[in-house]
Amino acid sequence: MSVLARVFEEAGLTTVAIALVREHAERVRPPRALWVPFYFGYTMGKPDDPKFQHQVLAAALATLDAETGPVLADYPEDAGPIGLPQASEVTASTNGDADKPVVSKPLDAAGEITALRGYYERWQEQRGRTAVGVTGIPQRRFRGIIRFLEAYAESDEADMDERPADVSVPQFVRYCADDLKAFCYEARMAQRPDASEADIHTWFWGETAVGALIDSITQRLNATGDAKLQATAYGLSR
Fold this sequence. Notes:
The protein is mainly alpha-helical.
């Protein structure tokens, strides 16, 4: 969206963008943007809350009043609990009975990917499309991504041969996490076609080894105190 804003401005159109990822807006530098601290998919904040949404819209349009740019303003208010929970909010998994939590099992993210592969390929065959592909690594080689992320969860020195030279290691970690999440979600939708979005989200973060691995990286990066690494962690466990 920030890139499109710059293109439209060059064509003579005045633009205002709302950004969910501040680091992207900082790098692209659109003419006017409002960063909002909301969950992905909820750019205007709370669903069915027109008063709150109008406040967000008014804050975005207020960037038009700036005499010079580019402008990147911060929306000062959190939208509160909306949409799907983040990984940190999924604390326990169940087998459909809240009184009977699932007994923890050894985490094997690579084995999990292999077990889900048939469901993922069924989804792709049925739908003819997939959200997997941002890394450029074929899904049948995702065990290599798992090994890379397991190493990165322990050390910043980890790297992967398939990482493009113009993409930093932390950014490539984001790409890997996005591909794994898309793979698992699509596999689960093929496996449980009647499951709701919230069910699948809770399953991924509460029951899967892949979700636990991604969340462990998020926690490690946030604990570094490094602003750049914390920016990378933003969005990993969502």
